[in-house]
Predict the structure.
Amino acid sequence: MADTYASLVAESFASIAVEAPAAHQALTLALGDQAIAIRLDHEQFGVAARPIPTITAPAEAPDVAIEVSASTVRAVIDGDLSLADAVTNDHVRAVGSLDAIAQVHDALIAYVHGAIRSPAVPELRTRFDEIAGLRR
Amino acid sequence: MTPVAPVPAMAHLATSDFFRLPSQMATRSLPYKEWQHFVVTAESLRFLINFSLSVEEQPGGVRRLSPRVLVMCHGASSASAHHRGEATNFAISNDLRSLRVDDSTMSIRDDGYAVTIDLPTHDIHADLVFRPTSRPFVVNNQPVGAGRLSWLFVPELLASGSLRVDGRSHEFDEAVAYHDHNWGHFRWGDDFSWMWGSVLPERSGDLSVVAMRMTDRAGHRCFAQALYAWKDREPIAIFRDGQVSMRRSGSFTHPATSYLPPIVSMLTPASTDVPGVLEVRGSSPGSELSLRFEAEQFSRIGLPDEQSVDRVVTLDEATGPVHVHGTIAGHAIDANAAGLFEFCHG
């Protein structure tokens, strides 16, 4: 089955759970009860935290709705664009209460800590670029 | 090119440098790490090449040996690259003198080191030989938190061959180089920090210096410090512990020019452990040597903290000019050189 952004995020959750379980637990705690809706290029999906981080259909009334392009995700991953600059320059749009957005930010940081501890994640990054047509 | 006389140091190298490997991988409580590090200075650039092996702890008590090859280039506009090898795609020779990671190899030969790097996705290729012109120096079992770290360094080598990185090809014809090899059992994130500086001359045989300091994480308690100097490829001074004083002035305020891996920029503060100026002084009866390092830029390597899932350990690789002066056994020393100082914040 062809990769989608959602399937890659799901795989990364699974890899982190197996290869960096402590980081996965921290991610789960950081997400709390948030329902997140993500629009990444033309793809839409949701992230729910309970009982473990899972990909879902986007919730009708998410706590936080995020819109971002694959090229922005790549620029942030590559260190070419800081997350703060991406947000302040509207390359990332996050809609929700301040508390909810702050919680999602903490969850994102926990996710990255898990990703750098998971040997399987770099290969997912290559597949991400292939979906986006951004292969290096 | 000035002819260099045959150096008996090579005989020492053949017997003293080899991959140590985790001989007690399954039984030691602390994970094993080993890395071979090379610095080449040429064309006003500093090239770093690093082959590493580390035992990573997996759930269920499983430990896997993970290799990496890292190449960095420091210049007027810094650039860098990073590669993580797959754990299954590497090999160590039976004589413990050669490591292959994917299509890159590092070998210890009777006459020096051979390095080939082929990282096509990063457009990095190297075919280099490093011929030592000075004898290796070994220090064993220095404390790093609850663990121990040993190292061997060769203060001066001559690098020849080619390296392509950042879209440019560089040819070296006996460029001055430095090598260190480190191994031990410890955890990143334990209560330690270190500073390790290598000062290389432009011309082989001129003054070269190594300075090191091992401390607790906060830098308050020093476990070991030293200042070593060589001239004409022979050691001329060694200052240790109480003979050495170090002074940091200010903080280097510019952001890192690059991060390895790049995503680490999200996980570490913009502030740095790199001082604006670092002064190191060694003194003993009849001899005194001082160096002043002024950072110009730094790259940051981030390593997962092995004790806490919400921290990374930073290795800041700072480059800049060094001025060394003093008197060794009645001979005046006054030299300018290129410095590469690593600040590990544990």
Notes: The radius of gyration of chain A is 14 Å. The mean pLDDT of chain A is 92. Residues 5-129 of chain A form a domain with the Nonspecific Lipid-transfer Protein; Chain A fold (CATH 3.30.1050.10).
